[in-house]
């Protein structure tokens, strides 16, 4: 723990910090690793020293500018990370300098009607909002270029920076003994996928599952279904290389749609005697969503949407299809209430109940972030862990 605390200093508290960050200046242009300025945290905000961060497909889609409304430049992307509290703003009580923390893009204030409800993990004020590029408190940025121009925030977190400022509602304190290296994965991908199996679908022992898209989120669904004792876990992906990683984590069957002469849903129905109990759409593709929905069993099948769908196209379903007993639902952050439930989930990971190492396929220094981005584009990595 002493070596980690050496990453923070009391001398920076209350002052503007100059540090390195990867800044996006335009869609699909290489991120620029340069010096920026990070302001001190304001009321109910926290500034942290980021030690590890990784790239998610949501970062990739934002970098590609898939949604015009999200094109705010310059901007610091990133939302999967872990680090240490460097300083806290006025009113913050639950976090102190030196605490080990994990950022969460879907915040939890703990006080609003949403946070008090057991029916949702959304927060009235700090829920995920890809269209907001400033802090909630005053609508301003805490980042700026060396010549004073503001740099926009991303998903309440902006972790592609040595230091970042977040609302305290978007930070989870975790056990000091939990390895920050792997805890990084709980910020998004693993929590989202595994939580979808545990919380959203509530998969039970002996039930069957089909996972469409075997990226990090899809494989986290596989891990969640495996730990729950699912009898059959079918992985679907057009990348044949995903079969090896899928089998290592827990799929029992692999389907490559390119190898079939029938629709995927028909193949799954033939394999399972009518369809799976649950399907998970992790690709962000409406045609895939249609196949996922059709692959579930008549009468009780449930489809959980986890993929990001940036286009304005609508659901490929006829309303009457829902009268056959099949259901469809979206899941944000795996229906985990971040600040309330993530510490316990982290404890389960530390005990070895969940395989985290399987998701880290590459590691490299932060300044190689564009190489890490390309690995994700090429489908060669699940999570590339960047060391700051």
UniProtKB/TrEMBL annotation:
CDD domains: alcohol_DH_plants
Domain Alcohol dehydrogenase-like N-terminal residues, every copy: 44-175
Gene Ontology CC annotation, any one: cytosol
Cofactor: Zn(2+)
Molecular-function annotations in GO: S-(hydroxymethyl)glutathione dehydrogenase [NAD(P)+] activity; zinc ion binding
Alcohol dehydrogenase-like C-terminal domain mapped to chain residues: 216-344
UniProt keywords, alphabetically: Metal-binding, NAD, Oxidoreductase, Zinc
Keyword Cell cycle tagged: no
Pfam families in the record: ADH_N (PF08240), ADH_zinc_N (PF00107)
Record bears the keyword Metal-binding: yes
GO annotation terms (biological process): formaldehyde catabolic process
Subunit note: Homodimer.
Similarity comment text for this entry: Belongs to the zinc-containing alcohol dehydrogenase family. Class-III subfamily.
PANTHER family: ALCOHOL DEHYDROGENASE, ALCOHOL DEHYDROGENASE-LIKE 4
Full protein name: Alcohol dehydrogenase-like 3
């Amino acid at each position: 723990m002493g070596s980690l605390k050496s990453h923070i200093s009391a001398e920076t508290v209350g002052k503007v910090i100059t540090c390195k960050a990867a800044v996006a200046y335009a869609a699909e242009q290489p991120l620029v690793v340069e010096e920026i300025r990070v302001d001190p945290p304001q009321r109910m905000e926290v500034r942290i020293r980021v030690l590890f961060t990784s790239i998610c497909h949501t970062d990739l889609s934002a970098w590609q500018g898939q949604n015009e409304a999200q094109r705010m430049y310059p901007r610091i992307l990133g939302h999967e990370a872990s680090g240490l509290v460097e300083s806290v703003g006025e009113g913050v009580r639950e976090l102190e300098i030196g605490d080990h923390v994990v950022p969460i893009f879907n915040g939890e204030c703990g006080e609003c009607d949403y946070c008090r409800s057991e029916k949702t993990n959304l927060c009235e004020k700090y829920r995920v909002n890809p269209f907001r590029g400033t802090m909630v408190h005053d609508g301003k940025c805490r980042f700026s270029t060396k010549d004073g121009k503001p740099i926009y925030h991303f998903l309440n977190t902006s972790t592609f920076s040595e230091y970042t400022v977040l609302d305290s509602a978007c930070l989870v304190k975790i056990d000091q003994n939990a390895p920050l290296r792997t805890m990084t994965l709980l910020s998004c991908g693993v929590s989202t996928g595994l939580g979808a199996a545990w919380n959203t679908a509530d998969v039970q022992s002996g039930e069957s599952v089909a996972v469409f898209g075997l990226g990090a989120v899809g494989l986290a669904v596989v891990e969640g279904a495996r730990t729950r004792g699912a009898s059959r876990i079918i992985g679907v992906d057009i990348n044949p290389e995903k079969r090896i990683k899928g089998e290592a984590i827990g799929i029992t069957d692999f389907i490559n749609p390119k190898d079939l002469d029938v629709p995927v849903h028909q193949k799954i129905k033939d394999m399972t005697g009518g369809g799976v109990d649950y399907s998970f759409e992790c690709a962000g593709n409406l045609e895939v969503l249609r196949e996922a929905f059709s692959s579930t069993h008549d009468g009780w099948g449930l489809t959980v949407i986890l993929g990001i769908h940036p286009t304005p196209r609508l659901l490929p379903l006829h309303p009457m299809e829902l009268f056959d007993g099949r259901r469809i639902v979206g899941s944000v952050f795996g229906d985990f209430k971040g600040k309330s439930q993530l510490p316990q989930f982290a404890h389960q990971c530390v005990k070895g109940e969940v395989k985290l190492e399987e998701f880290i396929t590459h590691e490299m220094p932060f300044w190689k972030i564009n190489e890490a981005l390309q690995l994700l584009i090429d489908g060669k990595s699940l999570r590339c862990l960047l060391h700051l």
